[in-house]
Amino acid sequence: MTSLPWFDDAGAPARRDGLSRERVVAAAVAAADADPHRDVTMRDLAGDLGVRSPMALYRWVGGSKTGLHDLMADAVYAEMTVPDDAGWRAGLRGLGESAWAAVGRHPWFARLAFSRPPLGPHALAVHDRALALLDGHDLDAATRMGCVSTVLGHVLGAGLALLEETAMRARTGLTTERDLSDAAQPYLDRIAASGRYPHFSAWAADPGRLAPPPQTVERTLGWLLDGLAGTIEGRADG
């Protein structure tokens, strides 16, 4: 595993030029927010920060671009909250909702979170608080973390899907739901005419199939929590 910046380098003290780890990471987050599909480079950051040499920035991020990615991801984990005063369900729902809000502000995070371990201080704090919600329930270690990962995995997976959908819409020019529907209709008509997939075709022909939207993140989160209740509360009662 590539070294993690928090364990190898605490970050040099701020210099007279105003540079610091916090400022470098904030600039990287802002650049990624402006274009979530952009690969933020050290050269980009040097220009944004008014630094002559991109190499001067590596000292602030553990010596590598991977270290910068770790720090950017952990900065987003800092925006997540885990309510701890109303039981496990409210706590995990709060985690999911705050994580989805963070993904909305930083769409690139959904991709980055899958590529690096969540071992920064903010990520560890989020997981620690979420695991604490399950104290008092007779759950083994794998199940405890599985409950937390189910919520975060759902949110991050939905965020990654939305990121890719956004790229597809920009690439194809199908920017609205009507555009997508019109583009798909000839294929749906051919599928229906074949008679091979009657249940799918009946669903596709139903004018109410997307009203209300069947798979909002919030609604699916509720379904997941309903399922987790059988595991969490069932074992506690048993």
Automatic annotation (TrEMBL):
UniProt keyword annotations, A-Z: Transcription, Transcription regulation
Domain of life: Bacteria
Biological process terms in GO annotation: negative regulation of DNA-templated transcription
InterPro entries given in the database record: Homeodomain-like_sf (IPR009057), Repressor_TetR_C (IPR004111), Tet_transcr_reg_TetR-rel_C_sf (IPR036271)
Keyword Transcription regulation carried by entry: yes
Tetracycline repressor TetR C-terminal domain span: 85-228
UniProt-recorded name of the protein: TetR family transcriptional regulator
